[in-house]
UniProtKB/TrEMBL annotation, chain A:
Record key words, sorted: ATP-binding, Nucleotide-binding, Transport
Domain of life of the organism encoding this protein: Bacteria
Organism for this UniProt entry: Enterovirga rhinocerotis
Protein name: NitT/TauT family transport system ATP-binding protein
Domain ABC transporter: 7-246
Entry keyword annotation includes Nucleotide-binding: yes
Matching Gene3D superfamilies: P-loop containing nucleotide triphosphate hydrolases
Family that this chain belongs to: Belongs to the ABC transporter superfamily.
From TrEMBL, chain B:
Full protein name: NitT/TauT family transport system permease protein
Predominant place of localization: membrane
One GO location term (cellular component): plasma membrane
Topological relation to the membrane, as annotated: Multi-pass membrane protein
Membership in a protein family: Belongs to the binding-protein-dependent transport system permease family.
PROSITE patterns hit by this protein: ABC_TM1
Keywords: Cell membrane, Membrane, Transmembrane, Transmembrane helix, Transport
Record domain ABC transmembrane type-1: where: 57-237
Subcellular location: Cell membrane
Transmembrane residue ranges: 61-83, 95-116, 122-144, 175-194, 214-240
Pfam family, one: BPD_transp_1
Length: 270, 256
């Protein structure tokens, strides 16, 4: 970690709607994320996790406070952040290769060179990235020919193809079965180790957070605030076996108690 | 492949059988050709009067195609507007529904009032009849873009136009071509409607003057020409649709 800050939230609060319909989604939150960090965001459903990602991406404006990304106020126009969601949203009329290439058609400086390079340099770049996640042989396949896990691998490639400094992942593996999910953890870990973007990962799975993240933030129920923020120091590359070690299990248990506590608190208030 | 061949020949056989039964029933029940002419009579009229009918057919075809092209252009522009913003959708939709429920016979006299009788009102009638399915389909196609994908692209700094160009419009293609098939048949209805009311040319006019002269076989010959043109254009657009938007049908085959 270089110590520079990639993302800074300074008392950022978000309220959707106004008047009687106002929905407070995020309590004023302050948080710094250093360059190259891998932060997992966990918390009860509806607590504002996706909202934090959208704030960083510049898709939602903060109601109070400021969001600073790479030293400047967050704005979708000025950034080139990679994002991936649970739904892989590959375009069915394009091959995997062309789907992954899509960001290069949109983001500068690639955009200006797209016509000239899409058949040479860009194609090699996409194939190399697909190779990293084991999809090299599927470059010319169409999305409907791929399994859910393969689509999600392609989705990660699409989010990384333009070499973003920041990668935002919103429950990317939520719809996959356990085995596929664990394979994808390994794929994501090696992508992160190779490219070292700053990652903000929203997940419901505490084992996933513990395996992948270098830091885990636990949020309270809506309107969310950060209840706990702790580092995960174990060495990389991590293995699935490490997720069954006593230290790991103890941390998972502690986080689970925090989240369950947060939900019980809500139940009592209502 | 042989299964489709068998299905094809079966359906062609049944269509021929339909005409056969029609012919036989007319003879057996001694139906007057003032009521329902036999297919053989209709085809004879078509053959004998072909030189006179030909320019009328071209007139109807030309008018329909012009109305169709203008209708498609109008429909695409309106559909893109309606489908790309919530406000436009909420405003335009009730208006369009209202407009589409007006019986189009009612607008022909207005067009005649404005432009006189002849080709112009026919083109316009065919336009206003055929643009509606296109608006609906383009708007639906645009509105079904996944919000997640939109977020992914906006986070990359994509403009509204980038999204429309790379995602919205390609996604509407299957909807668009499906609506073209419907629109071209509607365009025929519009043209013929206007020709029967206010024109001295075209198949619609041939049919109306034939029936006022009790030349029922000629009126039916007109019907057959219209049906033939309609089927031909429908088939052409189906073929184009299959070529252009294969990905949509392939996906369905896999899903089954
Ligand atoms: N565009 C929006 N308009 C109104 N309310 C919203 C909007 N987006 C999110 N919310 C509300 O804000 C809260 C937090 O949402 P979100 O960040 O998506 O939660 P999650 O932690 O499950 O990702 C939820 O109660 C949600 O209903
Ligand atoms: Mg969410």
């Amino acid at each position: 970690m270089s110590g520079r800050k990639a993302i800074e939230l300074e008392s950022v609060g978000v309220t959707f709607g106004s008047g009687a319909d106002a929905v407070p989604a995020l309590s004023p939150t302050t948080m710094d994320i250093g360059e190259g960090e891998f932060v997992a965001l966990v918390g009860p459903s509806g607590c504002g996790k996706s909202t934090i990602l959208k704030l960083v991406a510049g898709l939602v404006a903060p109601t109070t406070g400021v969001v600073v990304v790479g030293g400047r106020e967050a704005s979708a126009k000025a950034q080139r952040i990679g994002m991936a969601f649970q739904n892989p949203t590959m375009l069915p009329w394009l091959t995997v290769e062309k789907n992954v290439m899509l960001p290069l058609k949109i983001v500068q400086p690639y955009r200006a060179e797209f016509r000239a390079k899409r058949k040479g340099e860009f194609r090699d770049k996409v194939h190399a990235l697909l190779g990293e996640v084991g999809l090299r042989d599927f470059a010319n396949a169409y999305p409907w020919q791929l399994s859910g896990g393969m689509l999600q691998r392609a989705n990660l490639c699409r989010a990384l193809v333009h070499e973003p400094r920041i990668l935002l992942l919103d429950e990317p593996f939520g719809a996959l079965d356990q085995f596929t999910r664990e394979e994808l953890w390994a794929a994501l870990q090696s992508l992160w180790m190779a490219h070292r973007p700053t990652v903000l990962l929203v997940t419901h799975d505490l084992r996933e957070a513990g395996y992948l993240a270098s830091r885990i933030c636990v949020m309270s129920a809506r309107p969310g605030r950060i209840l706990d923020d702790s580092p995960v120091d174990s060495a990389r590359p991590r293995t699935l076996a490490s997720t069954y070690e006593p230290d790991f299990a103890a941390r998972t248990q502690r986080l689970r108690d925090l989240i369950v506590g947060a939900q019980r608190h809500v139940a009592e208030v209502h | 492949m042989s299964a489709t061949l068998r299905r094809r020949s079966l359906s062609i056989g049944l269509i021929l059988a339909f005409f056969g039964v029609w012919e036989v029933l007319c003879i057996a029940l001694n139906v007057s050709d003032l009521v329902l002419p036999r297919p053989s009579e209709i085809f004879t009229v078509l053959w004998q009067r072909a030189p006179q009918l030909w320019p009328h057919m071209l007139q109807t075809l030309g008018t329909t195609l012009l109305g169709f092209v203008l209708g498609v252009a109008t429909g695409v522009v309106l559909g893109a507007i309606v489908g790309s913003s919530r406000l436009a959708y909420d405003t335009a939709y009730p208006l369009l529904i209202g407009f589409s429920s007006i019986p189009k016979v009612a607008v022909v006299p207005i067009f005649v009032l404005w432009f006189g009788s002849g080709t112009v009102p026919a083109v316009l009638t065919s336009l206003v009849i055929c643009f509606f399915p296109i608006v609906v389909n383009i708007a639906t196609g645009l509105a079904t873009t996944e919000p997640e994908l939109e977020d992914v692209l906006k986070a990359l700094g994509a403009s509204k136009f980038d999204i429309l160009w790379n995602v919205g419009l390609p996604r509407t293609m299957p909807f668009f071509f499906a609506s073209l098939k419907v629109a071209i048949t509607y365009a025929f209805v519009g043209t013929v409607l206007s020709e029967t009311v206010a024109s001295n040319r075209g198949i619609g006019n041939v049919m109306i003057s034939a029936s006022s002269n009790f030349n029922v076989p000629l009126a039916f010959a007109g019907l057959f020409i219209l049906a033939g043109l309609g089927i031909a254009l429908y088939a052409i657009f189906s073929l184009i649709e299959r070529q252009v938007t294969g990905w949509a049908t392939r996906k369905r085959e896999i899903a089954v």
